[in-house]
């Protein structure tokens, strides 16, 4: 049996500075992040929540017309709360602007190759989420940062992002593209440029001459920033492993989602990252201690006035009991493979979370203080 996850104790602890909600797509990470942030703020923490591509209804639930790349105060809470949505391209631009003089930064940002990789390079969204986390944690404005991770195909992409970006920036092709700028003396420059010409001819025939020129111009303008990027990637990774960070793995009680949660749990453990526990969203607790078999037997036996309604209720209960048993079986398998990982079950709620009261309700459920028989979807 898994121990209970005490989320109030986690968010009340002043040593907890960063909470990262992670897991596969479609399991309720974004709403979980927002609800946890609202609860933490109203329990006395100064909180900023970073969301990744939330539905418009979530911004409205926070009382905001829209979310931007800069934290905006959520005014209708009793605590200090700000919310923002990651703008991947703008965050990349801010990194360049913070590392380069204005003229060089503008040259880099206007380069077509840069515009392509800053918008579509594999892992950019994950890396920029971590870059923004580093900015927020380093600002000193808030004492708790809650992060909703990107909806990656694999939850593991998120942990790999800093190293992947660092490897890309220090990769062989990048070094070749930067070679003419890095060559020191005039004679050496001629040798390097001759070698680069052969490389450019070969690669240009594959990806196109103009793209290669854009890439080379970008890398040569960007060359002095590589060290800073690699250093920031290492700092980001160190932040993820620090004692003040807590990972919450969010899953639905479904085979694929729990399989992904298991992979993430194992990865966090193997890299000594601080796992707080598992949030199991959209569970279906039974409303009465009656087994499915007994309820179905009762449905066959009822008679008299109202018997059809009574039978329908008993069959409905039997179906829900079966669903509950399947969910508990999946959780038992997860817990057997990962003993000691604390778990909190969050009942499915009927309808969207449309306002702060809805987020407060989800927050209460996350803390184990909600109505076990309620029916809303944490979406």
UniProtKB/TrEMBL annotation:
Domain of life (superkingdom): Bacteria
Record protein name field: ArsA family ATPase
InterPro entries from the UniProt entry: ArsA/GET3_ATPase-like (IPR025723), ATPase_ArsA/GET3 (IPR016300), P-loop_NTPase (IPR027417)
Annotated ranges, domain ArsA/GET3 Anion-transporting ATPase-like: 16-283
Any single Pfam family the record assigns to this protein: ArsA_ATPase
Classification lineage: Bacteria, Bacillati, Actinomycetota, Actinomycetes, Pseudonocardiales
Organism: Pseudonocardia spirodelae
SUPFAM superfamilies (UniProt xref): P-loop containing nucleoside triphosphate hydrolases (SSF52540)
Bilayer-crossing regions: none
């Amino acid at each position: 049996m898994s121990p209970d996850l005490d989320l109030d104790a986690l968010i009340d602890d002043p040593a907890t500075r960063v909470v990262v909600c992670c897991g596969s797509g479609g399991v309720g990470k974004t709403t979980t992040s927002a609800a946890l942030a609202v609860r933490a703020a109203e329990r006395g923490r100064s909180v900023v929540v970073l969301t990744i591509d939330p539905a418009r209804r979530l911004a409205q639930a926070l009382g905001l017309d829209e979310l931007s790349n800069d934290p905006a105060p959520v005014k209708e809470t009793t605590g200090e709360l700000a919310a923002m949505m990651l703008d991947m391209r703008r965050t990349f631009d801010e990194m360049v602007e913070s590392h380069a003089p204005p003229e060089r930064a503008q040259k880099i940002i206007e380069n077509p190759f840069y515009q392509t990789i800053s918008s579509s390079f594999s892992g950019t969204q994950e890396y920029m989420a971590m870059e923004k986390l580093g900015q927020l944690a380093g600002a000193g404005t808030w004492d708790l940062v809650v992060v909703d991770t990107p909806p990656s195909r694999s939850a593991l992409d998120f942990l790999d992002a800093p190293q992947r970006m660092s490897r890309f920036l220090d990769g062989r092709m990048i070094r070749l593209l930067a070679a003419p700028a890095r060559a020191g003396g005039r004679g050496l420059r001629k040798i390097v440029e001759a070698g680069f010409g052969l490389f450019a001819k070969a690669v240009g025939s594959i990806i196109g001459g103009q793209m290669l020129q854009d890439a080379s111009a970008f890398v040569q303008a960007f060359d002095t920033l590589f060290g800073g990027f690699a250093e920031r990637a290492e700092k980001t990774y160190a932040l993820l492993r620090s004692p003040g960070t807590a990972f919450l793995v969010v899953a639905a009680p479904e085979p694929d989602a729990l399989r992904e949660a298991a992979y993430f749990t194992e990865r966090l453990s193997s890299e000594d990252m601080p796992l707080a526990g598992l949030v199991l969203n959209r569970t279906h607790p039974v409303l009465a201690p009656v087994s499915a078999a007994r309820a179905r037997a009762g449905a066959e036996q009822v008679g008299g006035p109202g018997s059809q309604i009574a039978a329908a209720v008993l069959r409905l209960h039997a179906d829900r009991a079966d669903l509950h048993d399947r969910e508990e079986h999946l959780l038992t398998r997860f817990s057997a493979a990962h003993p000691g990982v604390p778990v909190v079950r969050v009942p499915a709620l009927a309808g969207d979370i449309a306002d702060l009261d809805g987020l407060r309700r989800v927050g209460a459920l996350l803390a184990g203080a909600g109505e076990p028989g309620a029916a809303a979807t944490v979406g």
